[in-house]
Amino acid sequence: MYAVDAASGELIWKMRADDQTVSRITGAPQLYKGRLYVPVSMPEDGLANNPKYECCRLRSNVVAVDAETGKQIWKTYTVSEEPKPQGKMQSASNFGGHPEQASGPRRPSIPN
Questions:
Q1: Which domain covers residue 83, as residue numbers?
Q2: What is the pLDDT of residues 38-96, one digit of tens each?
Q3: Which three-class secondary structure string do you get for the chain?
Q4: Is 23 inside any structural domain?
Q5: Looking at the domain assignment, is residue 112 inside a domain?
């Protein structure tokens, strides 16, 4: 994510919403009381086509970011339990886990 001065175009701050290389911001960050709430997805299910990739080890999340500084305040996962391999595919890769988007009926309540 990038914060840019609208008048000058100068970079104010930048940050990664998540450290995982496959993470994606899946919606517009929402600003509320000085915090940006950012939905982050882990679309690793597409990587499961690679027989050497052991899917699914990641979880989608929502991140709260200080809008002034770009510092992460908290992160909460959209599925509370840790992802676990559920079995093997014909290619011998593990599969299973939680590639959900950062929204939906299983979403936990968002902390303040």
A1: 18-95
A2: 999 887 767 767 777 776 777 889 999 999 999 999 999 888 888 776 655 555 455 55
A3: CEEECCCCCCEEEECCCCCCCCCEECCCCEEECCEEEEEEECCHHHHHHCCCCCCCCCECEEEEEECCCCCEEEEEECCCCCCCCCEECCCCCEECCECCCCCCCCCCCCCC
A4: yes
A5: no
